[in-house]
Write a structure and sequence with these properties.
By secondary structure, the protein is α/β, with parallel strands linked by helices. The chain has a domain at 1-85 and 197-265: Rossmann fold (3-Layer(aba) Sandwich). 32% of the residues lie in helices and 22% in strands. The strands form 2 sheets. A 6-stranded mixed sheet has the order 6-7-8-3-9-10, with helices on both faces. The protein has a 4-stranded antiparallel sheet with strand order 2-1-4-5, covered by helices on one side. Residues 7-239 form the ABC transporter domain.
Length: 294
């Protein structure tokens, strides 16, 4: 069990370079990120699509090399001295052709070391309601997701990074999983960072919440529930639940983006297009001419 600080990030700025693009074409995904998380915490990352949540989790998992800043997990640089017992679980796993083959779940779990973690594996089999006789190619996305979670959680991890990985779970399995994760942080001092867009039933889960927008933290990880002070008074008028606060934040993010588009501070790329680019009308005329759906 670790004590003290689980995650520490300072002066982190990260840019994506488009395939085949030039350095000047790089898109900034994270801007000047600075925060730390205590061990045993459960942090919820809140933000719209494209806010930078997935990029941040990828970097914490050591999956993206950074250009600027420092990222430490339990005092170790994730790129120079990768910390043990760090687990990242994202949605892309279930789309991998290798996990959709005709292999029995019991054999699949044993192939990744399930026999070494039998007690925890069996506990997770009950929590996630998994049938060891399922065949990986013949089960639903939600059932395959349960197998992924069992695979990732059956070892004694110290830091767990979850990126939308509960999206396929039914409400009962999700609730059982969240209770398990909560127990792990309380009993073992493990740490969880969780990005999700599903906020129902989450009010009692996080110890910290954070708000991301356009690659920056509008609100750094802050203890939850929010204290009723001057800083949070206006926010808490939106409601005291995570769902209400997330809805308020995302609506404010969109309103700010629209305002900046009107002021010419950023290009308008979303929603309806009022300025028709040269050639667009011709393409529309072409498709109308050959539209046989009427």
């Amino acid at each position: 069990m670790h004590s003290g600080t689980a995650v520490e990030i300072s002066n982190l700025t990260f840019s994506h370079s488009p395939p085949g693009g030039r350095p000047n074409d790089a898109v900034v995904a994270l801007r000047n990120v600075n925060f730390s998380l205590p061990t045993g915490s459960r942090t919820l990352l809140i933000g719209g699509n494209g806010a930078g949540k997935s990029t941040l989790l990828y970097i914490l998992a050591g999956k993206r090399m950074i250009q600027q800043g420092d990222v430490h997990v339990f005092g170790k640089d994730v790129f120079k001295d990768f910390p043990p017992n760090l687990v990242y679980l994202g949605t892309e796993w279930a789309m991998n052709a290798g996990v959709r083959r005709d292999i029995v779940v019991s054999d699949f779990l044993n192939s990744v070391g399930g026999y070494r973690h039998k007690e925890r594996r069996d506990h997770l089999l009950d929590i996630l309601d998994i049938d060891l006789d399922w065949h990986m190619h013949a089960i639903s996305d939600g059932e395959r997701r349960r197998v992924q979670l069992c695979m990732g959680l059956m070892g004694e991890w110290d830091l767990l990074l979850l990126d939308e990985v509960t999206v396929d779970l039914d409400v009962l399995v999700r609730d059982n999983l969240l209770n398990f994760l909560k127990e792990e942080t309380i009993n073992r001092g493990a740490t969880v960072v969780y990005a999700t867009h599903i906020f129902d039933g989450l009010n009692d889960f996080p110890t910290h919440i954070a708000h991301m927008r356009d690659g920056s933290f509008v609100l750094n990880p802050t203890p939850w529930p929010l204290s009723v002070d001057v800083e949070n008074a206006e926010l808490l008028k939106a409601g005291s639940t995570l769902h209400a606060i997330a809805l308020h934040w995302l609506a404010a993010d969109r309103a700010l983006r629209i305002q900046e588009e009107k002021e010419g501070k950023r290009a308008k790329t979303r929603g309806r297009r009022t300025n028709i680019a040269p050639g667009d009308v011709d393409r529309e005329s072409f498709y109308k001419k050959y539209d046989y759906s009427h």
